[in-house]
Structure formats: structure tokens, C-alpha cells
Amino acid sequence: MFSRRQQVIWILAVIALLVPYLGLMAVGGYALWKNGWFWVYGGVTAAITALVYGLAVYLRGRRGLQEVTPLQFECPESWPPREREAWSKVERLAQQAIQGEIPTKNIDDLRNLLERLIREIALHYHPDHEDAYLDIPLPQLLKIVEKVSQDLRQVVQQYVPGSHILTLRDWVKLKQAYDFVQPLYETIYMAYRIATVPVSPLNALWREIRRYVTGQAIDLSLGELRAGLVSYVVHRMGFYLIELYSGRVVLDEVEFDRACLTAEQAELRAAQPDVDDSFPEFIRIVIVGQLKAGKSSLVNALRRTWQARSDVLPCTNDVQCYLMEPSTDDLGNGLQPLPGLLMLVDTPGYDSLGEDQAFQSSFEEIKKADLILLVCSARMASRKADREFLQRVRQFFQEHPHWKMPPVIVVGSFIDELRPRHEWNPPYRWEPTGKRETLSPKEKSLQGFLTAIRSDLELSPTEPVVPVCTHPDRVWNVAEALIPAIAAHWDEARGVRENRHLHSYQGQKYRHLWRQTVNLIGSTARLALKKIGLN
Prior knowledge:
Strand content: 5-15%
CATH class of the largest domain: Alpha Beta
Number of helices: 16
Helix content: 55-70%
Radius of gyration: 35 Å
CATH topology of the largest domain: Rossmann fold
Distance between the termini: 56 Å
CATH superfamily of the largest domain: P-loop containing nucleotide triphosphate hydrolases
Number of domains: 2
Structural class: alpha/beta
Shape: flat
């Protein structure tokens, strides 16, 4: 704490700062009273104060302002359902803290909130253990501490003035100075408030009113700031806890990036052996469907070439990969090009190799897919096989919650053969608008076909169904609707790919164990040789 001499110096400094202002207020009040302006000044001050206070109350009660919410936090696209369920618990706790259901008025309250968050996330991943918070490997815990420290350093470096100059000793002295000056200031200010009442009662009254109004505004602002800070801390802490307890922490980012690059190069070279070492971003699209559903024709229409064989008989007896480069030739006004390459994986029809073998062949490709195109033909009335396949896919990912299911786009093919078959005059209105409108017979058949697909496959309203015509002479709605649908799911598809790479990398535990063992043996041997003087 400060010495006696320092305390006297601080008191004299505060008095020197306050005396000019106190003297000016006393002289000004006397001048106003002597010249007959005292009551005018008081009335104007009262009117302005009342107006500002009324405006503040009005704005505070406005519904639009009450609905202002703190910053929104979203979980990464690569997180599978298990992590998203844990994230919902984080959001629930953050919302309860913001609304005051969980106290956050002091450090102890915040510590209790974070301890509760740790328990809930730990139990989410290890429900069978009472002390689930201990079920984490030490290197991953240290990696999270490293990331949190890096985040904290960036915040302090960017938003705390003088943090790169002040030392820890300086911060301690500043805290001591505040602890000394703050009660002294409160005492002097209270004495000033009491002393000025007999000198100028009216001014003292309006000063207290202004102080109350200002205090209310500051309390409101501090409350919103506190809510924002609590929300940020809970969401950020929740993010790191989910990464930690789910085992998603990458200890060596350089090695992980190298493994991802090697895997993606191998994928691309399977489709195009002469691909460059530096390649653009891409996603792997697996095209599935029944026999003769038009999968190969869809590949041809997407690539604008006729390399994939298509016929009335099944032509794809094995998995075929094709590379599609983005093109803007057919894009109309307002349509955005794809952000990268497409690897199109053409799979055999469900029963082209016998039901079980074809089903399994397509299903194995689904596990490596970033996005799924399920082709349903307008020639086929039965979609039982498609429904069963989609149900198996959904069931697989439900049973493996650490995997992320690829987005599904259902493609309606051979729409040119819908009744009336002789009519072909696109474009057609295929998306229901909810308004009463006159549709052509072809448009009625088209919308009925899409409705039947949704019903038969039990699709949710958010799962897209896109009709296309892939006949070489009348390709329609591929660039107009299917490519934009793929682009809309691009980030989600990349999230599926990132999660798959992470799952594959984290599965190499025994390789890491072998490397650790070799390092330990080598270090021990070198130490032993050095000890006996042989090294």
C-alpha cells in the first residue's frame, strides 16, 4: 500500500483538481442569482433533464430494442450430431445466464457456472463416470490450455491499451492506486454533494436527478455488456470443452494438414492420374440410385461431356470417378459458380450386380462421400429401393454419431417423359409458390412427380428435390438449379470432409504410441550411453 507521504501527496493532488471546479460552480451560481437568471437556468435544466429521461424510458420500452440479442455463436460445420447435441447444452446454459436464471454477479458465480458447464459436457461424452471430467488425455488438455492462452494473449494485445508496455508490477501499482483513490473520491464527492445543498438547493436537486438518470443508463449498458461477456465466455469455453472431451483436439496441426493433403491427392489421382500437386478445393459427390435411374446420364450432363456410358441397359458395373471443373458458360444472371472442383462418383444401380452386392458397393462409397445425389427416375413408379437405401444411410449415421451425414440432394430424372410426353418447352415452373397460378399439363405432372418423391422417401422440407433433364439434345435445369443446390451445400459438404479426415487421423493411435515408445527408448539409450561415458 502507499506510504504516509504518498497518501498526503494524493490528497493534495485531488484537492488541487477539485478546487477550481468547486470555485467556478460557486461563483457561477452566485452570478446567476444576482442577475435574476437563477430560476430560469434551473427551469431549463429541469426541462432538458425531464425530456432526456422520458426519451430514455421510451426507447428502453421499445419492443425492437428489447429484442436486441448478444452476439450469435455457431458451431463448426464439421461437427457431427454428437457434438451439435453438446453445443445445444452450451447454448442453453448461456441463455439461462443471460436471462438471469443463473447468477453471474461476481467471480464466484461465474466460477460455479463454468464448473457446471464442465460437468455437463464431460457427462455428455462419459455418462457412466461420476468424475467424467477426468476422462481426458493429458496432451490434449495441455493443447487446449495452449489454445486458450493464445486467444487470451490476442485479446489482451489487441484491446488493452498499453498492455505491451506495462509490466506486472505496473498493474499491481495501478490496482493499489485505484483501491486508495476510489474511496477517497467517494468521500470527497459525498462531502461536496452535502455542502452544495444549502448554497444552491435547486441545482443540487437537478444534479441528483441527473445522477440518477445517468446511473440508470450506465447500469443498463453495463448489464448488456455483462450479458455479452458472459455469453462469449460460456460459448468459447463450451467450444473448447467439446473439442477436448470429444477427442477432436489435433496435437500436431502440421502433421494433420499433411495427412489431409496426402489423402486428397490420392482421391484426385484416382479420378485423374495427372493431377497437379497443387490443386483447388473439391468435394466428393457420390451419385446413387436404382438400375437405369439415369446416374451416368447425370454425370455426362454435369460434365458437359458424354464420357460416362449410358443406355437402356445397366452400363455401370463398378464404381467410376470423374472430375468436373467449374464452368460459368451456362450460368444465367445471378447464378454463382462453384467454388471448386467436383469429384463425381458413379455407382452401380442397386440391383445391377445383385441387390446385396450393389447395395453394399454404393453404401461403402457413401461412407467416403461429402455430398449425395440420389437419382429417382420418372420412368419408375416404385421407389421402395430408394427409400430403403436412404433409411439405411440415416440409420448408419445415427448409430455412428461421431460421423457427420453428408447432405442429400434428390434428383428427379427423365422429366421430359412425364405426361404429356410430346410436350417439351422449358423452362417449367417446378417449385410451388403457394399462390394460385395456372399451370400447364407438363408443370402439373412435374410438381406431382416431385411431391410423390418427397412422400415416398419421407424427406424433410429442408431436403432439396431438383428435377432435371439429361437428354443430350435437351439438357435442362442442371446449371439452372442443380449446380446452385450443390453450391448452397458446399460448406456443409466440406465440413463432412473435414470431419472424415479428422476421424481417420485420430484413428491412428497405435502409430502414435509406437512413435512415443521409439522416442522413449532412444532417449533412454542416449542418456545411458552418456552416463557411462560412451557418448
